[in-house]
Amino acid sequence: MNDLCADIGYKSINHVGEELCGDHVDVVEENEGSTVIVLADGLGSGVKASILSTLTAKIISTMMAAGLPIEECVSTIAATLPVCSLRGVAYSTFTIMHLINNETVEIIQYDNPHVIVIRDYEVYEYPKTEMNIGGKKIYKSVIKLQEDDVFIAMSDGCPHAGIGGRYNFGWKREEIAAYMQALVAGGYTAKNLSTMLVDECDKLYGGKPGDDTTACVVKIRKREPMNLLFGPPSNRDDANRMMSLFFSKEGKHIICGGTTSSIAAKYLGKPVKATLSFERSDVPPIAEIEGVDLVTEGVITMNKVIEYAKDYLGENQLYEEWNFKKDGASRISRLLFEEATDINFYVGKAINPAHQNPDLPINFNIKMNLVEELTASLKKMGKRIKVSYF
After folding, report:
1. Structure pTM?
2. Same domain, yes or no, for 215 and 237?
3. Domain end marker among 222, 244, 274
């Protein structure tokens, strides 16, 4: 087993006037290092398309994660999907990316725009083998993974963007590949890359998409540990043990909370240097301790990070806000969402007397809930999380 891992992100926009998306992405973890990702595009748009694509993605991802061959998956889909009374056909196009032990990827494509692969910041032309399964022309590729490889799967809403507008015949795959090649060089996460591609398609549609549009990006990267300390221990005698464990871990170190940072500074024998410049009104300023990568305020900053995390998992509309600002919440978000793959939380359970004021909306339970909410969101992002309480 190597030390590579997959960062997976996707985003969809609906056909104008439709409540449901006719595209569906399903991600199933087969085992550690092996994942099945399916992007399905249902025929047409709206409710029927949504049902077709959801069924297709669920059936394929579940069967492939169970180790069944692609032939069996396709024949099951053909036998399962309802037939459209108007067109007399029943199918959903699909793209499968099957990561095996984070060493190779098996790409299987049926009628969707072909996956774009960017390797060494150049568009990589990979070999494809044509197969015929149940009368359907399917392309299969097997690629050995390298660090920084980026795979971009999309529904046909992406190349259809701009038809009759900026482009007579839509946004060609080669042009999309060139656009993404420039973005990949910027070091963005898979989620942000998929968001930027879909946002650009939305602009080309003039904000009124003529088709359901989805992009799913897989970025291969090395594992990156990160450590976050939040709150002092309930027993003062545990402070040194907590600090010793925290600082002995490899990776960057983030400390949240005033009392916590004072304990850490005392342990390190270094002063806390406060920065009194407010980057923004709703997030307290950061501080500095030599030997610590980031020192922030606790509960208010963490609450903002959770807001960003929930948005990141959904519409990802705030990514420009935390991607470029220098306040504590934005910097924590960049470290946790973009850099880290394995995050160790060290959470102190001491009750802060300042938080016991009945006029303040902060109490011990809220603090613990913040940790639970943040770790749950990070797990959904595909991060490995370990929480230690003191």
Report:
1. 0.89
2. no
3. 222
- pLDDT for 175 equals 95
pLDDT of residue 356 exceeding 60: no
User: Could you tell me if 239 and 191 lie in one domain?
Assistant: no
Confirm if 28 and 73 have CB atoms less than 8 A apart: no
- Is pLDDT at 283 greater than 80 in this prediction? yes
CA distance 326 to 285: 10
- Count how many domains the chain has: 2
Instruction: Please count the other Cβ atoms lying within 10 Å of the Cβ belonging to residue 141.
Output: 17
Is the Cβ–Cβ distance between 159 and 173 less than 8 Å? yes
Looking at 38-42, 125-129, 272-276, 313-317, which range is the least confident one? 272-276
Question: Which residues 6+ apart lie within 8 Å of 315 measured at CB?
Answer: 11
Q: What's the angle, vertex CA 337, arms to CA 199 and CA 181, rounded to 5?
A: 45
pLDDT in tens, 99-109: 999 999 999 99
Tokens (6 digits) for 160: 């259809």
- Using CA atoms, how far apart are residues 282 and 302, in angstroms rounded to an integer? 12
Cα separation values, 74 from 36, 104, 226, 291, 318, Å: 15, 22, 41, 55, 38
**What domain range is 287 assigned to?**
225-389
d(Cα 25, Cα 54) in Å, to the nearest integer? 8
**Mean pLDDT confidence for 345-369:** 70
- C-alpha distances out from residue 296 to 239, 256, 349, 365, Å: 19, 5, 18, 20
Sequence-ordered list of residues with C-beta below 8 angstroms from that of 358, at least 6 positions apart, any chain: none
Domain ends where: 199, 222, 245?
Answer: 222
CA 130 to CA 136: how far, in whole Å? 10
Looking up tokens 């072909």, which residue turns up?
114
> Residues 212, 217, 221, CA angle at the centre, nearest 5°?
170
Strand arrangement, sheet containing 384-389: 273-274, 287-288, 294-296, 252-256, 225-230, 342-347, 384-389
